[in-house]
Amino acid sequence: MKKQYWIILVIVFLVGLDWYIRAPDGRSRQLTSAIESQAGDELKNYPYKFHVIKVVGETAYLSTPRNVEVPAFRMLAVLYPKINTRDANDPAFIAEEQHLGRVQSEARVIVLTQPGIKEVQWELDREWLAQHGIDVPAK
């Protein structure tokens, strides 16, 4: 009986520790809240939710589902499965790629207008990509 108690206690501790390590700090939550509250309709309704991962000094690290390691067509194929993302000339693909650029830019501008933030760095949202079945290169 005591052994089961200790196992449960250790599991609860490890879950709590994992949450603490992953939990964004107060400043990151505040900036993410600013994105949510100041976003225009296009950004608010976008299927990927941009968020601030961390803040270091005057630099905010903003999540992104794409970069040179994971090109936009891979995540757009998940969000818009009816679009031919393998054809770079497909008008629907081009429109969605431009749409992604606009909402990403809007999220960046919102963060940059917040007090104490002078720079935004993009950080690949590996967790979101993995949750959506997109292979993520190792760091």
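(ticket continues) Second input and output from the same batch:
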Amino acid sequence: MKVMVVDDSEMTRMIAKKTLKNLGVSDVQEAADGQIALQLFESDPADVIFSDWNMPNMDGLTLLKEIRRRNSSVPMILITTEGSKGKVVQAIQEGVSDYLVKPFTPAALQDKLSKWVGATI
């Protein structure tokens, strides 16, 4: 299984990557923004994507739209502090799979991953 972590915070990417490795996921792609993530996805698609909402160059919602144009079924989980009803509704309309609220715990990341890969990690 390949998991992509997209966040402009190097610390958040490092924590997510370490957590995923501890869960047995050895194939983890990292991207600092949505543009880089989209290029990675086009050349080497991930099985699950965890993406920050607020990033420079291309935000998580725009990345979600672009991913959905290319693949309607890959699970995409937005990592966000955004909780406004309007933003949540917009992301649901664009096909978001789930949310992970910052700051997240390793257990929360594990729960979301397990939910979308259909197995207990």
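Agent notes: Strands lie at 2-6, 27-31, 48-52, 76-80, 98-101. The mean pLDDT is 90. Closing as not reproducible unless the customer responds.
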